[in-house]
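Contributing: when you submit paired examples, paste them exactly as shown. First protein:
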Amino acid sequence: MADCLKVSLDVSAVPPHPAGAGRYIVQLALLLSQRDDVDLLVLTRKNDRERWEALLGGQARVAVALPSSRPLRLLAERFQLGRTIDRCGVDVHHGPHYTMPGRMRTPAVVTIPDTTFFDFPQFHQSTKVAFFTRTIARSAKRAARLIALSEMTARQVVDRVEVRVPVDVVHLGVDLERFQPEEPNPHVDEQALANVGLPPNAKYLLFVSTLEPRKGILELLTAFDQLAEEDQDLRLVLVGQVGWGEDVAPVVQSLRHADRVLQTGYVDDEILPALMRCAAVLAYPSVAEGFGLPAIEALASGTPLVTTSGSVMDELVMGSAWLTPPQDAPSLQATLAAALSEEPAARLARIAKGINVARGYTWQACVEGHVASYRAAANRLGTTEHHQ
């Protein structure tokens, strides 16, 4: 194999406003496209080519390979995409969202972001549970290599399905230039807060994620309503797109302090770092995650973090965050209250520890880990053992 590795990357699952896994795929594509040792071919869905060409600025080849409709896209991936990739002559294909093509000679690397379809099926649509549990089991047998975003996820994959290929643990990274404790320029933060309707020096809890049951949003609303009874200045800011499941808007309206809950929806990239930096606490009470990127970005921003124990967050934050059991509104309320009232010296020490932890998660290390997996897959290394 030549020194320049030819890689195809399936970006067809990335929505117009990426969050979570979508942000991971976008960042990975950008960094791979900038490497001299990778010749990247990005495979898009129909009507999405222009976005990726603009995003990558001509540094990678972009090809339409899949339909726009999700059901048709999944069928095409299973029965047609493999032959397309084989004809392209790449050394390795990467499916970054659980799946890989069928009927393909080219070795594939597949990212398994999490195992929530097995562990918490009640938090997903039943059709997705049926599809993704089968798909993960299939990838674990047929891929040349799997990537897990945490040690916990790597262990869980091995426990949930029959794994016949190596599993590489590759953490996501934080953009430390964007997410930092210090305001980059005067009045940047004040303007960002004003853009979402917050006054200067607002005291608020921040939630950043898709608004759906798995993220603990209902418990957070309950906890906030109790906290707001005691603290007349406290607000709750919900940043993220509405997912599936119960609509949170009626729940918000039923709160005693609904007037102090702000739903921003998706926010632009230049606004999010300021919202992180200015928050009193970032609340991330997710039941289960693959990585939980907003939580690590909060640590990088110097913002105290309240998240869930017994989850991957427990592994990643390394003692720098407040932890509370998932799906426990009273415990979440008590933990948020403790974080809000922490003594200044202890708060500063916790913030300093969180910043140090976040600096250990870099996108450069993330892309290096992916390229190492690609090379091992292309060379068919270790295909009969489990690696972490």
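Second protein:
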Amino acid sequence: MANLIDGKAIAEQITNEVRAEVGELSKKGIIPGLAVVLVGENPASKVYVRNKQKACEKAGITSIKISYEATVSEKELLEKICELNNKKEVDGILVQLPLPKHIDENKIISAISPLKDVDGFHPENVGKLVLGQKTFLPCTPAGIQQLLIRKEIATAGKHVVVIGRSNIVGKPAAFLFLQKGIGGDATVTIVHSRTKNLAEITKQADILIAAIGVPNFVKAEMVKEEAVVIDVGINRVEIGENESKLVGDVDFENVSKKASFITPVPGGVGPMTIAMLLKNTTEAAKLRV
């Protein structure tokens, strides 16, 4: 059986480190502040925002929640972001995605100041990531990298295969593992829905990252013996009448018999995403000093 990578425990470790940094900043009169903008009543988004608020409280970060009806205009949302960009006490701005269809997500993300873009989605920060420059890293890929670093799983010279090409996980994860230095120096392949012979490529992975959004997509026959498997997926599936459960993109029961390390769902990558958000917000607050 694979060794379990406990994301919850590692996220707790990072949160404690952030809390110590927040304590040092508070001696200088700086309390990091994160503004979270929630549009509409998406149940999953509401849960994510609530979890982020709880994590902020634990780390000593001020959390400001701004809620809008799903009918809010793009203009009003842009005006609010402009206002938050100019608020000294707000170090990080996070707009919870997805947004309603009448709002251009790219326009909203681009309106956030790159210095307050703690999600790491602004085009300027994405460009810096690609170039290997210091910037705010997207939280989920950064969380995955920290899981591997803190479990002392080497990436240098390894073949990392990423399933999925989203702007939130797939693409930035690929660039992150390509960078020189600790947690990087890997050979990276991205596969996706249009990839031919996908399983043949995933079977070559020393480290397999599944971020495709399909429940139990990765089967044991798609995984090399002793591979490290990181499951980014969070999918709710029905298991009976009025009953459901969370599963990942990996067939955990069978793949865990073959892998050397594996992340569970829940309790793997999810807590790390929030921990890295706290880290980014604290780094943004340091820019005030």
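If you have annotations for the second protein, write them as plain sentences, like these:
The mean pLDDT is 96.
The first helix runs from residue 7 to 26.
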